[in-house]
TrEMBL record, chain A:
Residues 4-99 form the Rieske domain. PROSITE patterns: RIESKE. This is Nitrite reductase small subunit NirD. It comes from Paenibacillus rhizoplanae. The lineage of its organism: Bacteria, Bacillati, Bacillota, Bacilli, Bacillales. Signal peptide: none annotated. The keyword Metal-binding applies.
Amino acid sequence: MTKLLIGNLNEVDIKGSRKLRVGDTEIALFRLSSGEVLAVENRCPHKGGLLSEGMVCGSKVHCPLHDWRIELHTGEVQAPDTGHVTTYEVEVDHATGSLYLTI
Amino acid sequence: MTVKRKKLILVGNGMAGVRAIEHLLKLAPEAYEITIFGTEPYPNYNRIMLSSVLAGGASLDEIVINDLEWYRSFNITLYTGHTVTSINTAARTVNTDKGVTAAYDELILATGSNPFMLPIPGTEKEGVIAFRDIKDTQIMQDVSQKYNKAIVIGGGLLGLEAARGLLHLGMDVSVVHIHEYIMERQLDETASRMLRGELEAQGMKFLLKKQSEAILGKKRVKGLLFADGEMAEADLIVMAVGIKPNVELARSSGIEVNRGIVVNDYMETSLPGIYAVGECAEHRGIAYGLVAPLYEQGAVLAKRLAGAPTEGYAGSVTSTKLKVSGVDVFSAGQYIEQPGTKALRFQDETEGIYKKLVIQDDKLIGAVLFGDTNDGAQLFSMIKKGENIKGREKELLLGLPADALASPKGNRLEGMPDDEIICGCNGVTKGTIAEAITAGGCTSVGQIKACTKASASCGGCKPLVEGLLQLYAGEAAVTVKEGICGCTTLGRDEIVAEIKRMKLTTVKEVMHVLSWSNEEGCPKCRPSLNYYLGMLWPEEYVDENESRYTNERYHANIQKDGTYSVVPRIYGGVTSPAELIKIAEVAVKYDVPLVKFTGGQRLDLLGVKKEDLPKMWEELDMPSGHAYGKTLRTVKTCVGSTFCRFGTQDALGMGIRLEKAFERLNAPGKVKLAVSGCPRNCAEATIKDFGVVAIDGGWELHVGGNGGVHVRATDLLCVVKTDDEVLEWASAFLQYYREQAGWNERTAQWIERVGLDSIKQALESPEERAALVERIQKTLSLTTDPWKQIVNTPELRKNFEAISLPETV
């Protein structure tokens, strides 16, 4: 488990996303309207679509390729589709806006 | 020369007043110097969301509608924690309890309501509160940490929401109500009894037909004594028996007051230059306490203050929606039967569903829904429109078309083998659907869609899915009215009408006011609402990038491997050696794996990495070809009279002119044009959304063609003589399409739906055409090239790059 300083809150738009690479893994970072910042592996289990390019609705992202829905808190694919995406813990330091990712 | 701004004062920093100010700033941003006084120490927040705060669904920060930055950005002087205590109407000044005096030219009173406190002994004791503002909410949260027993006086909407919140905070809650059934002002007795049953199952207790007589206790409340001599213990008493318009300031200033501050249809009070809006105002004898009427009033007042024409406010038909954990209740209009009305009822105690429609003279005048409120918005819009529903009454009550259960067309489906594919898009077999119905308990097409994905993509197999539903579910089959997506039951026209009527201005607001079932919508409704708002309010609306599809967000087509493609704009398909060299150099420099021509005669650079897009755009220095959006794609052309021996007109010139005129136009669907220079039609203009074909001495204008999934040849709209007329008709046609079609509806589908004649009729008169042309030009004049904008805006450009290398902490 490594904790990384990955950037600042203002680098991610609300209802928007940024991606980053850590070793061989590409991670998509999302900032929800609720203020939460969540991170998942940037790969839809269906056909490998980039989740960072999808539309964020509430705490779910819709894959841009075939509209699979993924709950960002848990990484669970929503019915009727099934599957799971790896999630990563993100901490926000609200005083400085710094974002920390644990991988 | 600067015009001296008039001074506008708003008394009351709440939802109604600030809403009117927001509107005014859109209509006349420079007209007034604005000062706002508010008693509470907060900026404008959403009072409706207090129940969510109490129930733990939202934080205080989240319910702020306009933060302090908003006031600053419009140079509004804001006094929080100030109560205006008097108005000097002769000198046109107001005075606050903290000694501030301010002068006004125009004055808005938006003083809201006060909670009605029962005139019984003991209301001053500690632990007796109302449920009206942030302070009350905080007290409830604090008390629940230390005490256990709460009583809510009042079994109306507000009381039940307070009680629900207190239950959530872990308190033992009893609701005291003077009537024998709760929510009697919104529900009939049956629905009320069902609601009480549900709430009791959740742990709420009820003391009905109880008149409160005195609050007991020394310093702090201990209990409540009733008129029948009985007593109930309480550590906290929340009064939620009603609200009364806050009219003291108006009354003491000599403004005419009845129950509320009396206003006319333009929100004007009895004194010149003084207006009232929101809960404190009484219009035609009614003081409203709901959000929709307050929005409508705010829109009228803003127009009045901006000097814009308005027909005035004519009152509102209101509806109630209560959403307390798992209980859905809806009522609207006159839901209690009166002489001369007829009622239809449906009651299903196994499912806990009750519906009632009240009808008078073949019109729906009221409705109550319990347990299944999906049709609420649709019924509400019928009540407001007053449309004739003769012959559809049962259909509306049950949500079933009249012949739904009567048609035996299941024969072919019955004989079909189980492994036959019904839905080709998602590969769903008859067997899978049958199982979803028989074993999975699906009773509607929507449920089957959610459970198997059948009919979830193109929708072409929906009739078959419906047939199977009837075959296997029989009488249990339910037809649910489908809205524009699963988040709403409202159709396109209803939504557009409501946006116009209430002047709704953001996607979030539309979803909130029209009771969306998913708070942030889905990839179907978000882009639709974004389009409708932009179409309706071209000048005020700020496009929501986050509500657009990937392709439109990044102004490039996403490919299956996550790379993108770049298609620069080449007007009319006419390029030059220098331009080609430039494109080739960029393609070489960025190692573009595939270069090809598109179907619309443009060059496509495919396989580009997202982070390279802005750099390539910058080096190409060409406008975006919009090959990715619901907008004008390309204008396909033939060579025309420039070189062709058959050409009768300059097709290239016309193509370039049209492409320059309409590039960047947002439309419901993609828009393709073509210009052929003679009737041989080499540019295939008769399968385009708008096709132009030259004839000797003029142009034929064709509309509604499509060469995609369902090929459709165009219809001839008209024949014109001059180039300018081509532009005029194209502008009018495209604008009419923009205003009338549903989002994602191509011109071909739209014409099939509304008929060519209706379009011809709409474009018939030169005045109508001129108005449409003016509107499209206004819209077009506000567009900019997206590639340039991204290249020059770091805030937008950052989203194309990965976050740089993280550091270990």
